[in-house]
Amino acid sequence: MPTVILDPPSKNKTEEKQTAAAAGDDDDEDHVTSAIRKTGCFKFHEKLQDCYIEKKDWRQCSTEMQDFRRYTDRERIVPGSTEHIKSGLEWARIKPDEPAVIQSERVELYRKHLVTLFGKLNHQNQPHIYRCFCTIDRLMLLRHECKRRSQPYRYDGRCKELSEKQQHEYIQQGLPHVIRFSLPTDDKGIQIYDDLVYGHHEHNPYATEGDFILLKSDGFPTYHLANVVDDHLMEISHVFRGHEWQTSTSKHLLLYKAFNWQPPRYGHLPLLERERGRKLSKRDAENAHNPIEIDYYRQKGYFPNAVLNFIILCGGGGFKDDDTVIGKTLDEMVSLFDIKLFSRHAAIVDFKKLAVCQRAHFKREYQTSKEGRQKIIEELRQNVLHYFPEKNSTSSMQLQNDYLEKILTMIDFRIVLLDELFTNNLYEYLWKDPELKKDLIHDVQQFKFVIKYTLDNLNQIHFTHDDIKQFIENYRPNKINNKEVFRIWRLVLCGCLQGPPVHEIASFFGPDIICKRFKHALVVLDQQNENFPV
Ligand SMILES: [Zn+2]
């Protein structure tokens, strides 16, 4: 028996807008659409917990594809959304154990199950479900009235009283309608269950809201109906989803009762927050620096396992500490996961941890897997061609495996993404001769002296790290101190003052390039002599 995990799109606070044919523009619509269209990282969060549970011998996992737009009558199916979710899961190497359930292809199935409830009564002798013909105008008035009285909005259940004859007439007239679930109004409406994360939970949905919609006027189910029918048919045993769904769970339990089905067990996971007290939102999804869509990280070149580590570290728990997660593969995380360590605290998304996870996997892939190493080198080569397309036509040294490997060894995982070697000015010297910045030259004569001395004595160096280091340390022309000599070497070779140790850079380049750059620096200094203070 499988477990479902993929989170439904965010809940819409104005569910009544689904009513009738008049569903108009909705503030939340874009948010919902984008949540469905894009595979958000944080939907993966729950998917991951599911993988652990599966391996910890509970069940398999499966995927529901909520691929339709739920809050508007226009453009229901979002093209490509299913493929998008699938490819995101594939990239992250999360394999559902059975074919995905495509909800938009099951609309008839949901309707078929729903109509079995017609004519059935609950313990209060009320129908389990009923047709509601209220227009959007009436619902708006109702909403305003509730607001005026400072009461929470609740549908007043007027259509529950419609006779069969009236309903028949309205249908004949072609009036649009939705189907609502009739909530028990007494204590039996209180739903008590043992949340797998939060423990004892009880809630009476009637106390806070009115009869909710199961089927919209366009015949599409709401999440409440679709998830209950799907989970039942797929024999789902455990459901983990975001904490915001906890109050809806009581509605789902009532629906299971009406169908006379056995409900799954539920666990709700703490919400992820961008900062304390503010949950991740549409604004975060659009944040250019750290968007919450998985695609962004895939395209940027993050390792799938690094992203998975990061998502786990964002919260929810299940692990002893951060070090139990960082640098681990999905399978390793699965074996280290402990359901007893689930956390109830809202978690802060800390993007600094993503860099730590990425570095850990960068190192791991490069150092321990031949295949991983080759892949990284090839990716670096593709980057060279991307940033310097002209090199494609030459047998450039900078495209050779040796050179690329030497770069990666020297950089020693100081970078997070390969891209930085091209976009960060600090690494420009790897690809082209550096520019000598005059404002970094304290004393031109001294600078020139060191260059000349170096050129005259280059043949004495054997170009191992230690040899170069010793060479620079030992010569004290004109009593110039070592620090200044190292600084001059760095400026001539790199054009900047940060980076790996000078002797490493020097041994990386070797005598030919060192000679070339020192000579070039001398020419530049001579040419621009008049511009430099002497
Ligand atoms: Zn109504």
From TrEMBL:
Residues 72-354 form the Glutamyl/glutaminyl-tRNA synthetase class Ib catalytic domain. Residues 1-30 are annotated as: Disordered. Gene3D superfamilies: 1.10.10.350, HUPs. GO terms for molecular function: ATP binding; glutamate-tRNA ligase activity; tRNA binding. InterPro entries: aa-tRNA-synth_I_cd-bd, aa-tRNA-synth_I_codon-bd_sub2, aa_tRNA-synth_I_cd-bd_sf, Glu/Gln-tRNA-synth_Ib_cat-dom, GluQ/Sye, Rossmann-like_a/b/a_fold. Keywords: Aminoacyl-tRNA synthetase, ATP-binding, Ligase, Nucleotide-binding, Protein biosynthesis. GO terms for cellular component: mitochondrion. The keyword rRNA-binding does not apply. One of its GO terms (biological process) is glutamyl-tRNA aminoacylation. The keyword Aminoacyl-tRNA synthetase applies. Pfam families: Anticodon_2, tRNA-synt_1c. Coiled coil: none annotated. Residues 388-522 form the Aminoacyl-tRNA synthetase class I anticodon-binding domain. Belongs to the class-I aminoacyl-tRNA synthetase family. Glutamate--tRNA ligase type 1 subfamily. PANTHER family: GLUTAMATE--TRNA LIGASE, GLUTAMATE--TRNA LIGASE, MITOCHONDRIAL-RELATED. This is Glutamyl-tRNA synthetase.
